[in-house]
Amino acid sequence: MKRILLFTLFSLSLFTGKIYSQETPTSYVGKAIQLMEQNSVNKKSIDWPAIKETYLKQASEAKTIRETYPIIRTILGKLGDQHSKLYEPEVIEAYLKRFKEVGVEFPYPKDSLIDRNMAYITVSAIGNMNQDDWNEYVQTFFDKVKKLDQANPKLWIIDLRDNEGGMFSPMLKSIRPFLDTDNASGSMDNSGAISFFMSKNDGIYFGKQKIGAIPISDIKITNKNKPIYILTNKKTSSSGEFVVASFKGQKNVKIVGCNTQGLTSDNSEFKLPDNAFLVITTGTLIDRTKYPYKEIGKGISPDIEVKSDQLNDYISKIKDSKF
Predict the structure, then answer these.
(1) Which residue in 48, 110, 212, 287 could disulfide with 204, CB within 3.0 to 4.6 Å?
(2) Which residues form the Tail specific protease domain (predicted)?
């Protein structure tokens, strides 16, 4: 699951060539190691002196900053969280553009009224960091939910199958009208400290820290207390799992499908001097009960198991279920 500070987004263009030119391969890798040592959820289990001795020596043999990327990726692998990554500056530049600018199809939600009384909508993965696209993502979701709500459905089906994650902020903003609490999901760091993600009128917060601005007013759902079924499969992962966890324990909700993928870690982005991004796992997903999903690969278990991945099989299970 990725979250990014507003300051980081707005300051991407503020680094000067002078600052970057002062970096050597060794100092660059040293800064990356420092960020990992300070922020990794597994930092207490890492032999940092050995890491520095081995990889700073390797960095001293590199001729350019870019030649250090494989070194940094090797160190990230040593963290053992299977979720920390390094993104090159050109990848980040692409993430900041609109989907249409890079020729990628927009992740619009799919919706329908099944059997004329079951409101169905998807929550799609969204991987970019473009503010206009985030706004469009949320507004389109809200518009479709309002239309479905007018049909007075007897239940809701929110489909997170194949949602492999990306940016949690627009997803949380989209589902917030369905949730019965502000503190629906959060993160536990390596010290056991807990902070919740919250969607407010002026933005998305992690604890008291604002991490996203989506200036779209929340909607009111007339039928929000009707049964809600959350669909999952093995591809539901990362931010998709944070969405699932946000519903876990809500009285009118059942999760239908199979265990999610199990990338239930909270990642934070840190910008390096050349505008590459170091994505570090800084915490573990928790639900509203503060239960931590620590085991990599275990995922979130369903209330109703479905062995196939066909929507019709999910619908059949829903029709047979009772709250």
Answers:
(1) 212
(2) 89-307
Q: Are 287 and 249 in contact (CB under 8 A)?
A: yes
Residue 265 CB partners (closer than 8 Å, separation 6+)? 1, 41, 81, 83, 281, 283, 284, 285, 296
Closest CA to 282 of 26, 83, 24: 83
d(CA 99, CA 298): 32
Pairing of strands 185-188, 118-122: unpaired
**In the chain, how many domains are there?**
2
Q: What is the pLDDT of residue 2?
A: 57
**Beta-bridge partner residues of 198:** 205
Nearest residue to 277 via CA among 89, 38, 52: 89
Q: Tell me the pLDDT of the chain averaged across its residues.
A: 93
Same domain, 163 and 304: yes
CB 8 within 8 A of CB 271: yes
For residue 191, give the amino acid letter.
Answer: S
Question: Pick from 8, 204, 1: which is nearest to 92 by CA?
Answer: 8
For the full predicted model, state whether its pTM sits above 0.85.
Answer: yes
Tell me, what CATH number does 39's domain have?
3.30.750.44
Q: Give the pLDDT band (50/70/90) at residue 190.
A: confident
Distance between CA atoms of 169 and 74, rounded to whole angstroms? 29
| HEC secondary structure over 20-71 | HHCCCHHHHHHHHHHHHHHHCCCHHHCCHHHHHHHHHHHHHCCCCCHHHHHH
